[in-house]
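Notes from the 1:1 (GR / supervisor)

We went over the backlog. Supervisor wanted to see one worked example end to end before approving the batch request, so GR pasted a single chain during the call. The sequence is below; no edits were made to it. Supervisor asked that the structure be written out right there so they could see what the output format looks like.
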Amino acid sequence: MVTNPSRKVLLVDSTGRGHALANLFQRTDPAVQVFYGPGNSAVAEERVYTVPEVSLTDPASAVRFCQRQQIDFVFVSHIDALSRGYVDFLNASGIPTIGPDLAAARLEKSKAFTKRMLKRHGVNTPRFEIFDRPGPAKKYIRELDYQVVVKADGLCEGNGAYVCDDQASALHAVDSIMLARVHKDAGNCVVIEERLFGVEISIFALFDGKDFLLFPPALDYKRSDDGNTGVNCDGMGSLCPHPLVDGAILRQVRTEILEPLRVGILRDGLNYTGFIYVGAMLSDDGIKVLELNVRFGDSEAEVVLPKVQTNFVRLCEGVLHRTLGSVSLETDAKCYCNVVAGQGATTRLGEDGREIRYPGWPYGDFEVGFPIFGLDALDRDNSRLFLANVCRNEGRLVTSGGRVLHVAGIGDNYAQAAHNAYINMEKVSFRGMSYRSDIGVMYDSSDSRPRQDDVPRQEMPEGGYAPPTRG
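Structure output shown during the call:
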């Protein structure tokens, strides 16, 4: 397939993942023009243009832009847009669009819908039950002889799953979700799922509505604090390739997860194109699927997508023409380690002179608008910078949200990649900046102790911080 040298793409996103996708388009195709909407005005890359008039919640804004700019195709990768029927609206307007439609987006929007779909089509997943009232949910928990994870059914920005160590914490999770309604309507229903132990794996594939193309799996660090402690959040960092994945596991992923998932999507009549993210656990009982997302993971996008060397415009053309089954994916041999910088705790004096404390993301309220320093000092030979909640204010870059930016280190091994991520992150500063210091350490899900087995050791680079990435 020959790529049109004047391809114009609209990418609908505004996150660090969106920046990584824009970079993938631009880096692998020397002629493509990427219009990033609403995008991020702080992103400054060749042939990437921010389009603030495109709204995540108003697909008509994208249609108007596409018609005015003669856009060739649209790639929608933000759940806020996907869960509102963005793809349906663009397709109905005659605009070639990649992304799941509203019905298919339920695979992320509703955990109950997903669990039923996985069970119906024989995809290996932990035991579960679904409840729409707190009384029966708590009665079920009291009858169990194993630990559980309690999940709010709807979208919760990555913090709707409660991993429970005992019955009391599980009962409290039900009360928080269904009675205190900490997640509002997302907690109208709960999934109570068997808790698994092992190492998590993030699986990504591009789907053309007929066939999957597998991308390199990654290891995500979902907990907010060092030692894999703290609260679940969207992710504080990632490693790619996944340190435990080998050919045998990849064959399992294809045959036991992606193939039955592909068949299930087709049999259920779901109109699905674009990336699918499978969150799974490598356990003693095989690979089990924990969740599905209908877009690329974030913080994994910042370590997986930089590995890709295949022209991404051509891959998207394969999706649009349903010829992805005849395409292969070329990736580099490097290791990548992504460390997330978030807006941590800050204090200020109120009008009455009393100190006001903000706990910071992801624990609660946080401040924004702090100048960011040191980005120009990053070594772009051994790291990549991806901007999330950053904006321009009077010509300078300032913080604008909880997860601020990503620094992905590159190396010939995991230790070198982690070393380069932290050496470069140390050059960055803003008020209240917070990040984990142990991205690259291997942990079991059962506790916060580093793994001492299964993973071959890597040599540490001389000087500077280099976490024990292999145990």
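Supervisor's comment: Residues 452-471 have pLDDT under 50 and may be disordered.
Batch request approved.
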